[in-house]
Here is the input.
Amino acid sequence: MKSLLLTAALLSSSAFAADPNLVTNGSFETTAVNAGNWLLSPTLEGWSVLAGPANFEIRNNVVGSAQDGSNFIELDTTGNTTIAQSFASLTAGASYALSFWYAPRANVAAASNGIEVLWNGQQLGTTLTGNGGSAPAWTQYSFSVSALAGNNTLSFRSVGASDSLGGSLDNVSLTSAVPEPSGYALLLAGLGAVGLIARRRGSVTR
Ligand SMILES: [Ca+2]
Ligand SMILES: [Ca+2]
Here is the structure.
């Protein structure tokens, strides 16, 4: 009895546990960068450069701290770039929750700090920018996006003055916005088992 109830509870809780991040290397931590340093890399796990100089600028707590982990990236590398990640197995028509953190670069004017976020080539929201000041803060942005059949592409591009100084990005996540149908099925199965046990127990003890 107890073990059956426990099983039902575990089934229902696991069905509604936080969905995993579908973004590969969304926090940009897989490339080793010395603390307090930065580098230009032609590769970055999970990501590709769609436009601009063919490098990623990965920074380890230099000119600002990472929002998550140690690394973050700056999109105006040696010029404005567009980086992207594609998702091949999303459910067509389903909604997904996109989240990321943006910060303007310290002591860089808003006209040079812009970043745009695009889902399947369509811009989400407005251009993110800000006057860096001496200690710029990270800001989280969240969007709901709908998946098309086939590949879906998330991209970020730096805009404004292309001068090797620009906005930063960290902690990108994409998660399923609602529980999967299998999650509901597991929950219903768990509740059904509990109800059946309760009825049986009631008939015996009465
Ligand atoms: Ca990070
Ligand atoms: Ca710039």
Notes: The chain has a mean pLDDT of 88. Residues 22-178 form a domain with the Jelly Rolls fold (CATH 2.60.120.260). The two ends are 17 Å apart (CA to CA). The CA atoms of residues 101 and 139 lie 5 Å apart.
